[in-house]
Specification:
It is built from 14 helices and nine strands. The chain is an alpha/beta fold and 366 residues long. The radius of gyration is 23 Å and the shape is globular. The relative contact order is 0.11. It catalyses: S-adenosyl-L-methionine + a thiopurine = S-adenosyl-L-homocysteine + a thiopurine S-methylether.
């Protein structure tokens, strides 16, 4: 990042925090219409409510500042990101809407969101140019399928997690949305234990993976029997099935899979797929995923933010702007979580900032 973009980020951060303070903490000055705010004598309950609001305000401000500081990208003022911070901190304080000033509190928050977005709009062109530059660092990066298979053969699978991913656990209720017996799709599934976790809950799972070793290890390490059979529609492909848990894993190139094989799905969990495919294939990948989404599908997408000048990937850098570019024309996108995920592993890659975002993507109703 050059000096001018760094100074722009600093100015933008200062502006965003200032707007937060003036919009959230000073409703009389920030809201011109008295229909939003009525003068009344303070009572014990209203004083308590205002104290809770102030405490929540401090927590949101601190979390927002922390998010800005740890982000490898310039400040993002997307409404869903700010709202996600609000939701997380409100739940952290165990607050309910009726304890937060009802409509007054929510209208103040909404005004803050609108003003924050409007404030940052002049920087949109600068941010887009910076994102384009960052994406360009990895645009020509290519990994052949054989390289992934070789990693499995050599057990170089640091991307595999032996426990159910916390982002899936934290957001499973939003993915299920009250449904039972949901059909889940796992692109580039590896031997993710998340698949058995969902199957144990009564859901069915279909995965696609290039490595035969990964698929066999999944069943064997989970003490599950399986059958093996060819897939006539995909030359050279095989499908491995456990009928008891209703798990079917296809060994083939992901781009040879289609909705003509297994239909469409009610849910998709993409923990390490979009960030693993070659950056030049993202448009093709998004088209495939969208074609696999049923009308009620809820697609949970995990992405990573870091400085691609410092690490070539994989996993690759996928900014929120590209998520919207890939899926926004046909889907609604909500940022559910944004967390600092920097560990010694990423530090060994040469990174000092590493952010993990999880998005909920759903087909537009119209």
């Amino acid at each position: 990042m050059n000096a001018s973009s760094g100074s722009s980020q600093t100015r933008n951060k200062t502006r965003l925090i200032f707007i937060f303070k003036t919009s959230f903490h000073s409703p009389r000055q920030s809201i011109p219409s008295r229909t939003f705010y009525t003068e009344r004598q303070p009572t014990e309950s209203s004083t308590k409510r205002l104290a809770l609001q102030a405490k929540l305000g401090v927590r949101i401000q601190a979390s927002l500042a922390a998010f800005i500081d740890r982000s490898a990208c310039p400040v993002s003022c997307a409404a869903e990101q700010i709202l996600a911070v609000f939701i997380q901190e409100r739940h952290a304080l165990s607050l309910r809407e009726n304890m937060c000033g009802s409509n007054v509190f929510l209208r103040v928050l909404w005004l803050f969101l609108c003003r924050a977005i409007a404030s940052c709009s002049p920087l949109t062109a600068d941010r887009q140019a910076n994102i384009t530059s960052m994406l360009g660092q990895q645009a020509d990066r290519v990994m052949a399928l054989g390289e992934w298979e070789e990693r499995w053969q050599q057990n170089k699978i640091g991307f595999h997690q032996p426990e159910v991913h916390k982002m899936l656990k934290n957001n499973i209720d939003k993915v299920l949305n009250g449904r039972t017996g949901v059909r889940f799709f796992f692109p580039l599934c590896g031997k993710a234990v998340d698949m058995k976790w969902l199957a144990d809950m009564g859901h069915s799972v279909v995965g696609v993976e290039i490595s035969e070793k990964a698929i066999r290890q999944f069943f064997e390490e989970n003490n599950m029997t399986y059958t093996e059979e060819p897939v006539p529609a995909i030359p050279g492909a095989k499908v491995y099935k456990n009928s008891e848990k209703n798990i079917s894993l296809y060994q083939c190139d992901l781009y040879n899979f289609s909705n003509s094989i297994e239909g469409q799905f009610g849910a998709i969990w993409d923990r390490g797929s979009l960030v693993a495919i070659n950056p030049g294939d993202r448009e093709k990948y998004a088209a495939l995923i969208i074609s696999l989404m049923a009308k009620d599908c809820r697609y949970l997408l995990d992405t990573l933010l870091y400085n691609p000048d410092l690490y070539q990937g994989p996993p690759f850098f996928v900014p929120d702007e590209q998520v919207h570019s890939l899926f926004g024309s046909s889907c609604d996108i909500e940022l559910l979580q944004s967390e600092d995920a920097l560990t010694d592993k990423q530090r060994n890659w040469g990174l000092d900032k590493f952010t993990e975002n999880v998005h909920l993507i759903t087909p537009k109703s119209n």
